[in-house]
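can u do me a favor
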């Protein structure tokens, strides 16, 4: 698949250049909406001092984040592997930029709303103090940081490799396998978080 000099330069550029390129590739309106829409619900819950809205924002954003994080390695990755090179490249270059902004918006909303819910000093917290709430917050923020550092980097590695002048099929295959392993790890952490949060609700 051919690649422009501009795209090649951006893949080696600084973070701002990459973000600008990805936003353009995703469609700037989609990129902005993916970040602003979920965060708007979080902001509204704070402005309205509504614990109920904050809770449902947390649950909804978390469900989207967790669901997509599992679907990508379990379904989308293997599906791409079964397509021919041209079709796989077309899907990857269209999907990945959108997925990055979408997941950052919903995952950030999840951890921010969860932090407020579990922190009484912030005004809207449920008041769960002690070790368990601290562990839940640590797992949530750890998973968010892990997502930025590992799955997103793998997706972007596949994206830029696909745009390169001579895509390496073996490297793309290796990235797909790593995505599966990472997805299983994320699933385990997400399950642990769900168990913790369900215990809070039932307690």
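np, heres the sequence
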């Amino acid at each position: 698949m051919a690649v422009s000099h501009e795209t090649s330069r951006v893949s080696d550029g600084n973070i701002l250049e990459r973000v600008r390129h990805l936003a353009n590739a995703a469609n700037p309106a989609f990129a902005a909406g993916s970040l602003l829409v979920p965060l708007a619900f979080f902001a509204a819950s704070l402005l309205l001092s509504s614990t109920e809205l904050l809770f449902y924002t947390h649950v909804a954003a978390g469900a989207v984040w967790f669901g997509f994080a599992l679907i990508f390695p379990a379904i989308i990755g293997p599906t791409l592997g079964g397509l021919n090179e041209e079709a796989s490249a077309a899907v990857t270059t269209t999907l990945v930029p959108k997925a990055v902004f979408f997941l950052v918006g919903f995952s950030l909303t999840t951890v921010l709303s969860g932090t407020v819910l579990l922190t009484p000093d912030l005004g809207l917290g449920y008041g769960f103090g002690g070790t368990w709430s601290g562990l839940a917050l640590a797992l949530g923020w750890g998973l968010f940081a892990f997502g930025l550092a590992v799955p997103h980097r793998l997706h972007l590695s596949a994206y830029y490799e696909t745009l390169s002048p001579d895509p390496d099929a073996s490297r793309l295959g290796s990235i797909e396998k790593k995505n599966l392993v990472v997805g299983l790890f994320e699933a385990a952490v997400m399950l642990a978080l769900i168990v913790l949060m369900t215990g809070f609700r039932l307690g």
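The CA atoms of residues 3 and 118 lie 47 Å apart. hope that helps!!
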